[in-house]
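Thanks for the sequence, V.! I ran UDP-glucose 4-epimerase right away. Repeating your input here for the record:
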Amino acid sequence: MSWLVTGGAGYIGAHIVRALADAGLPPVVIDDLSSGHASFVPDGVPFVQGSILDRDLVERTLREHDVEGVIHVAGFKYAGVSVQRPLHTYSQNVEGTRIVLEAMDAAGVPRLVFSSSAAVYGTPDVELVTEDLPKRPASPYGESKLIGEWLLRDQAVATAGAQHPLRHTSLRYFNVVGSGDPSIYDTSPHNLFPLVFEALVEGRTPRIYGDDYGTPDGTNVRDYVHVADIAAAHVVAAQRLAAGEPVEPAYNLGSRNGLSVREIMDAMARVTGIDFTPEIAARRPGDPDRIVATGELAARDLDWANRYSVDEMVRSGWEARTAAR
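Predicted structure:
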């Protein structure tokens, strides 16, 4: 029996693949390499190159590899870009999830861990985000993730009396950073860590967008969580589903405290040894002052914890990025 990781050649998915293997759960990967890298898939792990929009391919992969559950990571993950490309976002994230569920139903695969997002909350005006907070996504990306959660919920209701009723949980996470393996690094053109790393590698000065927020140092505060901790939570969720243990419909993988952009910049200079003063640019529209979640439910059920300091998060990411030169 194996677990299929959709998007398993991507930054987060590749870490989940390794965490599954380490836990004794054989992984299988399907990825169209639109943002992933074949080199991120470990030797010996079955790799199917193709799109989750190809229903026949997904079902065939499930059957041929005796898959008992799916960790669904594949998707279009750029919230800002989704505003300009809503149709593409919905195709990849909503239709893609629907097709995965349809293929699972046909193949009799009853377990799904869904990589959701804190984007389902939009810009909440609260100190700490909890799972029961109203969902008000502010982008097509956030909307697509929320619809994905609805699809899981509705399919679980529809199959409750079937031979293979769907059991599922969704993991909502925030800013995933660092590296748990020097051969894997974040290659996103939109995330803070790779943007800063690329600037430093190229001799440019990193940029802060806005320093007049209502926070202690004027820069916005976010949850930054290490990718290895994220991967570990996915594996525990898969194990609980496989064991028939109870799970919540959704969990926040948050830090409770958060870090400001300036704190990240200070850590970047400290860890890399490259002294720089960030440029200050205008705020980006729609950026809230603070979004931080508790992670209490995940700590209770998924052994969730923030096991890395900010310096360790930066160091692991920087070492992986510089090793790729």
